[in-house]
């Protein structure tokens, strides 16, 4: 009788192990097919843009980058949000936050600022244009070139739950963002593939970096002073999506 019980327990453990293995395989296959669908979609979008001159109304990012930002906004539902660099992100991302919020976007270009401002149809979203102190080429700017642009958020006397950096002087903005975060705030840097930004990542206690084959653009970095906020991300799943994207991109790179 005792032997039968022991045998039954072993069989149950074996079946549980097989179930977990099969579950893992199914999850990985699902992710692979999802990544393939993402690449097909992105290639189609770029072909339409190229041959039919059709512009997209979504932020200028890859789908795997949007997944990260969308997940953070949906799960955290930040109330006070800051964005350096206005664009279609200013029009799309605030819609993911339910209820009252304040989204402030800082833009250096007056014409582009007005263009985006005229498209805003979401309550609580505003754009402030802060001209550069000195006109220089992108990614060559220093703190003095964009001093007013970088320091403007300090004049608001607000601690932000969410900061998105996708404009000018990103390295300097990333440094400034640390003092602007609320205790559970989170900051996201777009185009984190650029190595010139990496030297300041360690000023944040917790961080996650997602990179791919691109050198001059793309990639997302997430930083926080609160481990709990980083924990809200499904990092394992996102890492799988980025890993398989790299593999597929070696075979068929998006146009």
Explain what the structure shows.
The protein has 255 residues and is of the alpha/beta class. It has helices at residues 2-52, 63-76, 88-92, 110-117, 147-151, 170-180, 227-231, 235-251; strands spanning 80-84, 102-107, 125-129, 160-165, 181-190, 206-210, 220-224. A seven-stranded mixed beta sheet has the order 3-2-1-4-5-7-6, with helices on both faces. Helix 6 links the parallel strand 4 (160-165) and strand 5 (181-190).
Helix % is 40-55%
How large a portion of the residues is in β-strands, by DSSP E? 15-25%
> Mind telling me the C-alpha Rg?
22 Å
The side-by-side strand order for the widest beta sheet comes to 3-2-1-4-5-7-6
Rounded mean pLDDT score: 84
The secondary structure category is alpha/beta
| Coarse shape | globular
| Unreliable stretches | none
Number of beta strands: 7
Cα end-to-end separation:
66 Å
String of helices and strands = HHEHEHEHEHEEEHH
Tally of helical segments: 8
Sheet having the most strands: 7 strands, mixed
Spell out the key features of this protein.
8 helices, 7 strands, 255 residues, 45% helix, alpha/beta, globular
Short characterization:
With 255 residues, this protein is an alpha/beta fold.
Task: Compile the SSE list and pairings.
Elements: H1 2-52, H2 63-76, E1 80-84, H3 88-92, E2 102-107, H4 110-117, E3 125-129, H5 147-151, E4 160-165, H6 170-180, E5 181-190, E6 206-210, E7 220-224, H7 227-231, H8 235-251
Parallel strand pairs: 1-2, 1-4, 2-3, 4-5
Antiparallel strand pairs: 5-7, 6-7
